[in-house]
Amino acid sequence: MDEPGGEAPVLQLLQAPDTCLVKQGAEAKVYRAVLWEDEAPLTFPDGRTETHHARSSTVLIKHRFFKRYRHPALSKSITAQRTISEARSLVRSARSGVHVPRLVFVDETRGLLGMEWIEGQSVRQWLGGVPEEGEEAKKEHPSEEEQLDIMNRIGEQLGRMHCADVIHGDLTTSNMMLRPDGQIVLIDFGLASVSSFWEDKAVDLYVLERAFASTHPASEPLFHRVLASYAAYTTEHTRGTKTKGERHVDGAWPHIYARLQEVRLRGRKRSMVG
C-alpha cells in the first residue's frame, strides 16, 4: 500500500543510499538493498515492556520495469503475471526441499520481487568458467574431487526441482550460487514454469548441457556427474509413481533420458542447418 502523499515503501527503498544496481537486463533491474526493521516496543503478559533494537538484512530486489512500447494495460498485465509466476515457482520449489532464495515480499502491480541475498559466488565463477566482460580470469581452480562433489549436489537439486514439476527455463552455472558452507542455491526463476512433461525436463537439462559446453572447457565429465546424480535422485523418488495413468516402475529417469537424447539430436540437426 502507498503511504499518504508519498511513494510505496519499496520504491523508496530503491532510492535509498545503501541500495545499488547490480545488474540490468532486457526485462528487469536487480538491486542489492538493506532492509531495516525499526525499533518497536514488545509487551509481555506480565506487563514488562522491552524495546527491540533496529535490525538490518540484505535483500535482492528484482524490478520488472514497464515497457514503453507496450500498451500500458498490457504491460501491467504481463508484468504482474510474470512476477507472480516467479514467486510461485520459488515457493513450490522451496516446499519440495529445493535450495532457493527465501521470498521476502511480492508487489505484482509494480513488478517488484524481494528475495534473500545469497552470499557466495556463482558456480560459473567457482569453476573458473570463461570470464564475462570486465571480469578477470580465475587463477586457482578447485580440485577434481571438490568439483565432482559440487556436481553431485547440483544434480540432486535439479532432481528435487523436477520432481516438483518446476521447470527452471534458464539453467546455467551462473544461475547456481555456492554458499560458503558448500550449499547449492538455484536462482533466477524468471522463466520458470510448472510442467510434468518429460520433454520439458529434458529441454531444461539440455540447456544446462549447452551452458557447460560454452562456458566451461572440457566440462563433459562434470555434466555427466550432474546427470548421474540427477538420475539417482529421480529414480529413487519417482519409482512406482503414476503420471497421467502411466506407472513409473523404474522411475522417471529412463523416460527423461530418452527425451534428452531426442532433444540432443534435434539440436545437432539445427546446428548443421544453421
From TrEMBL:
<dbReference type="GO" id="GO:0005634">
    <property type="term" value="C:nucleus"/>
</dbReference>
<dbReference type="Pfam" id="PF00069">
    <property type="entry name" value="Pkinase"/>
</dbReference>
<dbReference type="GO" id="GO:0000408">
    <property type="term" value="C:EKC/KEOPS complex"/>
</dbReference>
<keyword id="KW-0547">Nucleotide-binding</keyword>
<keyword id="KW-0418">Kinase</keyword>
<dbReference type="GO" id="GO:0004674">
    <property type="term" value="F:protein serine/threonine kinase activity"/>
</dbReference>
<protein>
    <recommendedName>
        <fullName>non-specific serine/threonine protein kinase</fullName>
        <ecNumber>2.7.11.1</ecNumber>
    </recommendedName>
</protein>
<dbReference type="GO" id="GO:0005829">
    <property type="term" value="C:cytosol"/>
</dbReference>
<dbReference type="InterPro" id="IPR022495">
    <property type="entry name" value="Bud32"/>
</dbReference>
<keyword id="KW-0067">ATP-binding</keyword>
<dbReference type="GO" id="GO:0005524">
    <property type="term" value="F:ATP binding"/>
</dbReference>
<keyword id="KW-0808">Transferase</keyword>
<dbReference type="InterPro" id="IPR000719">
    <property type="entry name" value="Prot_kinase_dom"/>
</dbReference>
<comment type="similarity">
    <text>Belongs to the protein kinase superfamily. BUD32 family.</text>
</comment>
<dbReference type="InterPro" id="IPR011009">
    <property type="entry name" value="Kinase-like_dom_sf"/>
</dbReference>
<keyword id="KW-0723">Serine/threonine-protein kinase</keyword>
<feature type="domain" description="Protein kinase">
    <location>
        <begin position="16"/>
        <end position="274"/>
    </location>
</feature>
<dbReference type="GO" id="GO:0070525">
    <property type="term" value="P:tRNA threonylcarbamoyladenosine metabolic process"/>
</dbReference>
<keyword id="KW-0819">tRNA processing</keyword>
<dbReference type="InterPro" id="IPR008266">
    <property type="entry name" value="Tyr_kinase_AS"/>
</dbReference>
<dbReference type="GO" id="GO:0008033">
    <property type="term" value="P:tRNA processing"/>
</dbReference>
